[in-house]
Specification:
The protein is α+β, with helices and mostly antiparallel strands. It folds into 3 domains: about 5-80, no CATH class; about 95-190; about 205-365, Alpha-Beta Plaits (2-Layer Sandwich), CATH 3.30.70.270. The chain is built from 11 helices and 7 strands. The strands form 2 sheets. Strands 4-5-3-6-7 form a 5-stranded mixed β-sheet, sandwiched between helices. A two-stranded antiparallel ribbon has the order 1-2. Helix 1 (about 20-40) crosses helix 2 (about 45-60), helix 2 packs across helix 3 (about 60-75) and helix 7 runs antiparallel to helix 8 (about 245-260). About 25% of the residues are buried.
Amino acid sequence: MKRASIHRAGNKNTVTAAFDELDFEYATSIAEKAMRSMAEQRVPPTPNNFHVWFNYTLGEPPILKRAIDILIGNKRKFDAHTNREIYESYIGTKASDEAVAYDVSQQLHSVMASAKQFLTTAIADNRTQMAAINDVTERTEAGVDPKLLIQNLMGELAKATTRATKLEVSFVEKSRELATIRDSLVKSEERAKTDTLTGLPNRRALEEFFRKAQLAAMEQDDPLSVLLMDIDHFKRFNDEFGHGVGDQVLRLMAKVLRDGVRDIDLPARYGGEELIVILPNAGLATAATIAERIRRSVAECHISRRSTGEALPGITISIGVGQFQGGESMADLIERCDRALYLAKKTGRNRVVTETDLEAESEQQATG
């Protein structure tokens, strides 16, 4: 049985309607399950929300399903702010990218059409100039007054120079347009790889960076480690002080991460209140040291409500640390870090747990 797929028409997201009988039944069942899940979580059935929850019910992409499962597990309310953030983080940027791509395509079409016209004009001008010079040559051979011929030749050269100058100006203008288009593409690519709330790289940038780091680690036999961290009791900040404070905490965390890692590392927002750091050329011990430094820096931070100056509770984080094993997928490595993170939460929070600690706990449980 084929699964339902998502396609886009123009700049709008829409669920594919072209199913055969079995596909239609399957898609209908997915839609019904999505609507039930939305009702259970009291999510308004808007087109954007339905798009998110239809994909969630399909389980694609897995990162979206995991993020929503975490929110449900934390009993997070799916209010307008949360729903908008989920859509923008996992769905909306794609529509934005397509809109930019469409605009760029139209701009390039216009520039190429102009360039074609310029070249056509230049070729025609060259032919006219060559014909004029040939005419002067023929008249010279016929014994026409040289002064008159020189005047005619200079006139034709002047016309050619004027036409060439106009073409040059037009080409310079179109070159500027191409430079603008190039800058637009660069900025669009940056936006597509940046989390709008924290300014950190997002999952797309994370996956691209990890693939390169993974290949380098295997080719050069270098270590590669990952830190997966979660803000302790983050739900409390949102519930007691509002999402504005929660957002402030996430931005603060982003700053601590940027200040606490090396230039070669990649800190990123993984989803919700989870953050991640990819550490090339770092073994488990080095990664644990960096993680501990980040944990201490966060614990030393103090935040206050911007509107009143009221001091707010301190922030702590739990961190799971794992080292890449040759050939494994990013999902497998992060899953191991996630288990270490869970152990950190289970054993009191505000601590760093490595995959070695996981092995020690397993042995202890086996012997106990």
